[in-house]
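Researcher: Here's a chain I'd like modeled. Treat it as a single chain, no partners, no ligands.
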Amino acid sequence: MESEFLKSLVIIFGASALVVFFLHRLKIPSIVGFLVSGVIIGPYGIGLIKDTHSVEMMAEIGVVLLLFTIGIEFSMTKLTRMRKAVIAGGSVQVLLTIGLSAAASFLAIGDVNKSVFFGFLIALSSTAIVLKMLSEKGEIDSPHGRTMAGILIFQDICVVPLMLIIPSLSGGTINILDIAMKMGKAALIIAIVLLSARWIVPGLLHQVVRTRSRELFITTIIFLCFGIAFLTSKFGLSLALGAFLAGLIISESEYAHQATSDILPFKDSFIGMFFVSVGMLMDIGYMSDNCLKIAAAVALILGLKIITGIISALSIGSPLRTSIHAGLGIAQIGEFSFVLAVAGKASGLITEDFYQVFLSSSVVTMMMTPFVLKAAPSVSGWIAARRLLKRAGKIKKVSEADGFTGRRQGHVIIIGFGLNGRNLARVLKEADIPYAILEMNGDTVREMKKKGEPIYYGDGTSKEILHKLGIGKARLLVVAISDPASTRNITYIGRHENPDIYIIVRTKYLVEVDDLKALGADEVIPEEFETSVEIFSRALRQYHFPNSVIQDMVNKIREDSYTALRSVELPMRHLFEEVEWLPGMEIDGYRVPADSHPVGKSIGELQVRKNTGVTIIAVRRAAEVFTNPKPDFRFKAGDIILFTGERKSMNAAINYFKKSK
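Model: Modeled as a single isolated chain. Structure tokens:
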């Protein structure tokens, strides 16, 4: 038995590696590769693996770890901000999908109970696939990402009541009190789990970290992940939801990043098993014999779910483009629909033939998801730009756009009012520089309007709205949003509408730098390399490089679009061309403040060498450099003094210079 299980693992990982590698050369997402691998080696393919039960168990571990790491990327604060998407958006999507699906099914079969059950199956989307794709693209915190994540979380919660209602749909009796008790227990366990994020887990992890045992830390993290997932499953909730809640708990502690890095190797290994196991469900023979029936089912599912997804996103105030993007993203059938389908089949709600059609069409929608999500930005942008469809979302846009004014000139336009946008606005306000903010979160707009901020609701990819903000006369455009597709569109529109405007763009990932530069951005600030710049700057300071030299190096890296850090083949030596002598010498520098001891005094009067033991080798005053200054050289405020000597002497010199007058 053990050798058979090991054989299955060898086949799965071997076949997956080959297929994923081949498809990667064709630029096809790895998720599709895993699904195709499952189709090939599964019982309906060449039959290398016939018993899929053990594989399904491993696949569940992959889903648990995936949702756990995504939960860590969230936080209780972020989830609270998403409450509208979770409660309002999720409920509209689920209820509307069930209602429309049931109505369409009733016209075909005339059975109310079975029609409602069909609605249950179609209502759920794939949390694992969608969140994995959003996480890889860095779009979980984008407007469409938050909308999709909120709806998916609500769907996972709905698994409980949907499972409890199945017996009544099959003609059995239903106990309202029993359902109420189970729902109450589920709500209670969620509340307990979330409360522990503040009161129990941080203290527990603190005690574990104090032992300085990495093995104990990893063991504790895995215990929390699987323990909470198991606990929620015993109360009727899904394992995935429990794992997500466990991740939320860890996210509230200062150990979240370490937990993520320790879990990632396990997650990446097991999540492939999930997609392989889904691929194994596809019966190629049945699909070929019923291809028209399955194609019709796929078209019906995608069309219905895209429509309900768009409506649910619009209902919570999302712009039309974001709503279309979200609707396309959650158009597939979810993995928990398989669980409902098995229960419905056992209860007699669906036949074997319908089960096979549903299974095949579900896997097809899952395989299509990576391609649909890849095309979603372009499709949603194109549709939203069409006047015929824009009118649906234009009433609110026009009413809120009345506050825009075209009288501004030489101002700054800030797209996005997250942490970066808020900090920039605060600085601009202190500097008395005019600015206008564009934000797509209606709650944020209302809140900040009350505080007097010049903030407006709207989509930055709309040329009309940018013109209302005065893009033609603005001096600076700052794009600080977490939506790569929208960032590119805004950059292009900004450059096209005002060739003279200076555009600064923030991006999470390095791969966006060249594209954004090509689209017209003057400066692109990738968070990944700004962190690297800060780290190496501080490291060089420990080796006593003068701040002015470090700043010159940083400027050179930024001006070159971070090329020095982006290529392992490019030598870094050119950064040190003008300062080759520095690493081998103990030198330091000091900028003279206006109220410090050296101001107005000469080197001879200060007797620096006698009092501290260092030798002054140069003084930089603005753009002018005085090398080997004479004893009668007098210091002014703002001078940068470069000196050399033993480390102990240089520390004494800095303290000596710091003395007040």
